[in-house]
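Final report, closing paragraph on structural work. Over the funding period we assembled a curated collection of sequence-structure pairs, and we close with a single example.
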Amino acid sequence: MKGYTTETIRNVALLGHGGCGKTTFLDACLLATGVISRLGKVEDGTTVSDYDKTEIKKGYSINTTLVPVEFNKVKINFLDTPGTFDFSGEVQGALRAVEAAAILVDASSGIQVGTEKAWTAAKKAGTPRFFVLTKTDKENVNVENTIAELQDKFGTSVVTLDDRDTLSEAIAEVDEELMDIYFENGEFTEEQFNQGLSKGIAQGDVCPVFVACAQTGDGVKETLQHIIDLVPAANKVEAPKTVDGAEVKVDANGKPVVFVFKTLADAFLGKISLAKVISGKVKAGQILYNHNQEKDEKLGSVFFLRGKTQGECPEAVAGDIVALGKLQFTKTGETLAEKANEVKLEPIVFPQAILFQAIEAADKGADDKLSSGFAKLIEEDPTLVLERNVETRQTLVGGQGDIQLGIALSKLSEKYGVNVNIVPQKIAYRETIKGQSDVQGKHKKQSGGSGQYGDVHIRFSPSQENFEFSEELFGGSVPKQYVPAVEKGLLECMEKGPLAGCKVQNVKAVLYDGSYHPVDSNEAAFKIAASLAFKKGIVEAKPCLLEPIMKLDITVPDEFVGAVMGDLPNRRGAVMGMDPLVGGGQTLHAEAPQAELFDYAIALRSMTQARGSFTMEFARYAEVPAMNAQKIIDAHKAELEAAAK
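Its predicted structure, as stored:
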């Protein structure tokens, strides 16, 4: 692949609903430009873009793939993103590396959920966008109706290039100067028209619709030419910003700055990083500095990728997208630059995990392999998480949905030889008291020689603090040097309550009396005495179970608000408030117990036809209803009995 200048490179992300034809469109572009001799099929695993073994097996994209297309002395770097909603993080990464987003629409299906999500993601990222209608060869397809549907849904910015009048009106909206010219003259000169069109697209105010049928080849070359003419080069749009808000000018003659937006794990080459050259030039052997990790990074190999095919890259210039082989330290979202030129571009904001599963290694002693293998999966997909719940002692994997987690666990087995079992997820319940008690804890042991003696009288009551301890001793009933041991003994007992072995919280303990032996008393004896008092005192002070209550912010279109609100009471939840959204839809502010939300990501997707989204965070602990609490206590007792056998 010959070298290109910044001005002769275009970077475009392909977005859209799963199955809308993104991957096949790319094959059609390569066929039209003579790179391949026949159109591949997704279902046969013969396309250039979907080459991963898992993608071929599943029949859909799961990774962002780089596929450059050379046409009329310009290179268009296409980034093919997955349409499956579980892999929305791939879209976020790709949008950081491009100057435009092509939203592909299956003309036989019209606007789908993925169409809306693609539009929203590109608009939120401030990325210029246009539509490409595909599959126009199918029966009963009406292109004009599909375009009208797009205009009705997304507004007057959606235009076709053969509709000069409508396009002129859209261009007039770009800025006041163009508006004045249009009102005064009723039309634009050719130069004004082209300048206004380019500016309107760059600002996202004009969104052209192109038609390209992959199966027949109709419109494919025309679409490529439109991209060349209308998509701005990297140095013609707003410059990327650092974490400090400074702009990094896209300049081939500037100091080298490289941004990694995607990491791939290749079975033969190991780790491959897809990177956008923001400034300067890069080549193999160059040493740059990772200011995020504060480490030197040698570019051992720099090459172009087209699917899985590698191409020689003597040098890559600002605005180009390349592959970097075997970077040691650099992760997705990090920046490479000269050591003396500290640059840290804004990181990629990935969606937080909303679905968790508890897993256990199928083989004993495989926990370390599980952790290291999953760490590599997270390098590929930063929306995955692996965490250890110290209270429940469970390993949790999290992500955007069950499809993503299923594929991750499948890769963990196939690539890294770690098989896992999915087990029921536990809740980090807590215990507390609702009443008061006044108890004695006495430890006396005599078995020849020196014995042990500790005696304490403690009052227990509820507290607003996690643990509150004080002493009201008089007359030296318990020597001062043993008081810390009493407090320590109580604190250790707070780790395991009497009901279900959960942490205890919101307890006040007042040591007010006791006795000691001048020879047999020691710190250990008073610790034991305190623990005896704790176990007795908590039971007598009306103990109860607490469960974590989660705060939910649920965003849904208006037509699904009723279904979502109706579902929450079934989860012992409640809506606390609502906020209308600009352009339609509502954000519901709700609370519900964590125990009822394990499957909420899947349920919300089903209730809202995948149009709903939510975030979740811990709010507080609340008492578990008696019926539910007894089941939890009984289950704990059963575990203890089973362990004792």
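The chain has 16 helices and 31 strands. The mean pLDDT is 93. We thank the funder for supporting this effort.
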